[in-house]
Amino acid sequence: TFRRAIPRVASDALGAEARALATAMGQARDLDVFEDETLKPLASSGQQRLLDPALAQLVRERAKAQQDAASALSPPGFTSFVLDLSRWLDLRVWRQGSGVSATHARSAGDATERGSAADARIESPTRADRDSAGGRASKRASSAASSGSTKGHEVRDRALEQQRANVRRFASATLERRHRAVLAAGALPSSMEPVARHELRIAIKKLRYAAEFFSSLYPNKASAPYLDAMAELQQALGTLNDIATGERLAEERFVGVLDPAAGALLAGWRLGLGSATLQDADRAWGHFSRAEGFW
């Protein structure tokens, strides 16, 4: 979302670490979803005995995945990541190489300093008034200081308003670009190959992150229908992705564990769930493609 506003050199290192953490935790998450969305429902429907070997294998696989996730979240590596991220935010490293942001930051900072200096000048005549008989001079000085303070605040307010306008322009351009990318990548999900549906899911996920992040800049009544349609589509595409992930896990981690009957049971479950979810995805695509952007 912010790739065009943040210099790559300022974010690549942290981005790589964040992706590594997501990968480590994603393996445990995939196994949890496989259990909750496939193995448990089938076992509770009277197939417990047939799936006992798979459930036992799942426990072993998940223990290893959780250990890998815990290691990724343990010091010193994760601690260093958190400290680096905090430093990155505190120092506003993303402003390096960004002339517009740096200029606006300096404008706001200068305005704040001018306002603070003016505020300090207000206090000085007040103290002098107590120590001096020059009441008129003190009042004139106080009036001048008050005028200077007002001007300082006005400059600061103008700078902040300019920043808000810049943010909104950036948000609108970003959302429009993301929206067009989804429309270009998408069609009725049932007509798409799995790889293309996966790319559509990634595009809608990026759009949703950006839309939810920037939605507070716009009236809620305008953004709510669009956000709802987008969430519906992402949910359906996410379920399809989980089905595909479950199939991959069964092939990679449960080889020799599932007998032919259990394998056929899982295949039939995926087929039925996938067919129903594709219908949901087609309906959600229709809702989204007709939704009007709120930016």
Summary of the model, kept short:
With 295 residues, the protein is an all-alpha fold.
Report what the structure shows:
It is a single chain. This protein has helices at 8-72, 77-90, 99-131, 135-185, 194-214, 220-253, 260-290. By secondary structure, the protein is mainly α. It starts with 7 loop residues before the first helix and ends in a 5-residue tail after the last helix. Mean pLDDT is 84; it is low at 97-126.
Descriptive key words:
295 residues; mainly alpha; 7 helices
Mean pLDDT: 84
- What is the quaternary state of this protein? single chain
**Based on helices, strands and strand pairing, what is the structural class?**
mainly alpha
Order of helices and strands: HHHHHHH
Number of helices: 7
Radius of gyration of CA atoms, rounded to a whole number: 29 Å
- How much helix, percentage-wise, in residues? over 70%
- Tell me about the largest β-sheet: none
Task: Give me the count of strands.
Answer: 0
Unreliable spans: 97-126
> What percentage of amino acids are in beta strands?
under 5%
Outline, from the CA principal axes?
A: globular
Distance between the termini: 15 Å
List the helices and strands and how they pair.
Layout: H1 8-72, H2 77-90, H3 99-131, H4 135-185, H5 194-214, H6 220-253, H7 260-290
Helix pairs in contact: 1-2, 1-6, 1-7, 3-4, 4-5, 5-6, 6-7
